[in-house]
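# nightly structure sweep
# worker-07 picked up a monomer target from the shared queue
# config: single-sequence mode, recycle default, output format = structure tokens
# input follows
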Amino acid sequence: MRNIFLFILFLFTTQSAFSQQSRHDYIAKYQMLAIEEMNRSGIPASITMAQACLESGDGNSELARKSNNHFGIKCKSNWKGKKVYHDDDAKNECFRKYRTVEESFVDHTDFLMNNARYSFLFELDPTDYKSWARGLKKAGYATAGHYDKTLIKIIEDFKLFRLDYEISFEQIGAYRDNPITNQGISNTLTINPYRAHKVINMNNLDAVVAKEGDTYEIIAQEFDLRNWELYKFNDQPKGYVPLENEVIYIENKKRKASRKDKVHRVETGETMHYISQMYGIKLKPLRRRNDIKKGEQPQPGEVIQLRKKVKK
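# output follows
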């Protein structure tokens, strides 16, 4: 019986180990939050990302999984939010609990910006991750004596200093064999033009306009969406790469157009997908409404019904 129990325990712990998130996947998933917070505060994205990796165990710690606390921030006397208790330097210590991972990243920024003992950090060069790491240790962010060295190692092992220049983690992989120092970015590299996308109103739906170099994956990360959701919202196949200035819906399109848009007269070059995006209508209902099968396209001059089914 004891051997069976040990075997079951082995299977359980092995399965748990295999299900853990890798550091690579963790960085790829949350890199945009680090860049957003850098743009808001000046805290290097490399530092934010390295701290998140270390403090959350790459998102696998109990505190991260159950409480969305990715930076190990304790309650402190001024904390008014939800609380959770864990053993750390002492038993049953109070930690902050968040509704989302994004809240944790935002609060980490606010925690550093609003705490006087970290104020000297904001006088440092925002690309000098080594000085920031040493400053965090000096200010007592963590008790580990090698805290700064650990952060620097994570940043250099995964080339996270490139996030400070808004080069995405995917591009980091592409240039893995072309190491650079922190003295500047090589002219041979393409700077990711990523900035936080402004949400626009298109047909009473939330949407963004694609920039050069955008992918659905980058935009999904920014708005805490799954990749497949963006493809579904925009009736595009997996792997589709948007064109610059293309409108991308970040919520489900509607089944029919607004009351003011009843029909559309097709112009040369327009496809059913183009029309569905123009009016914020799901592609399948639009096809059915006009008896146009998948793969077929309307002819120039043809009238497309946007609200009611064509009467034969």
